[in-house]
Amino acid sequence: MPTACPACKGPYLERRGFGTEKVAHEIKTLWPSARVSRLDRDTVRRKGAATDILRSMAAGSIDILVGTQMIAKGHDFPRVTLVGVISADVGLGLADFRASERTFQLLTQVAGRAGRVRNLVFSTLLECGPIREPCMDADACRHDRPCNERARMDAR
After folding, report:
1. In which domain, by residue range, is 58 found?
2. Dihedral sign from CA coordinates of 53, 58, 61, 67
3. Which among 71, 93, 116 is the end of a domain?
4. How far apart are CA 110 and CA 103, in angstroms?
5. What is the C-alpha separation between 127 and 144, in angstroms, rounded?
6. Distance in angstroms (rounded) separating the CA atoms of residues 63 and 103
7. H or E element: which one contains 67?
8. Helix (H, G, I), strand (E, B), or coil: what is residue 81?
9. 133: left (phi over 0), alpha (psi -120 to 50) or beta
10. What's the rounded Cα separation, in Å, for the pair 8 and 42?
11. CA Rg, the chain, in Å?
12. Which helix (H) or strand (E) holds 150?
């Protein structure tokens, strides 16, 4: 982590989160022609809203879907070629001895959203802090459960 602001050289830095609303706004700024939608607690308050968003994604009416963990589980969108996870290491800070296994499981699930169709190039990008954990290395992106389990056993 830098010790000073690169713009003003001030010594006081603050870690700030990146909510889905802010991420979606940044994406719209970078790719103004992209059809961007969010799937999070704020956007699914209305009955049927989640279903509407998921149907739009399945129909190809959404180019980029930004959301929380609810995107990771149980959805099949064959045309997804890139999955990005912001603050992928946040679960490692929980007071739970299984935090690494649970993080690996979630990241493996979300990485599985990309590349479900043959002949499409796909990637998974994980953004995280300086924590060095096997589940944060390539294990989850490669779906390499044996490698992650060996690392967990070595740690214990």
Report:
1. 17-71
2. positive
3. 71
4. 11
5. 19
6. 26
7. strand 64-67
8. coil
9. beta
10. 35
11. 17
12. helix 145-155
Residue 49, Cβ neighbours under 10 Å: how many? 13
For 67-88, what is each residue's pLDDT tens digit? Answer: 888 887 777 787 887 888 887 7
- Split into its structural domains, the chain has a count of 2
Q: What would the pLDDT profile of 26-66 be if each residue is shown by its tens digit? A: 999 999 999 999 988 888 889 999 999 999 988 999 999 99
Structure tokens at 124: 């998974």
Between CA 30 and CA 34 the distance in angstroms is: 9
- Which structure tokens are listed for 117? 């169709």
Q: Is residue 57 within 8 Å of 37, Cβ to Cβ?
A: yes
Q: Are residues 66 and 96 in the same domain?
A: no
- Residue 69: CB partners within 8 Å, gap ≥ 6? 106
**Residue 75, number of CB atoms within 10 A of its CB:** 15
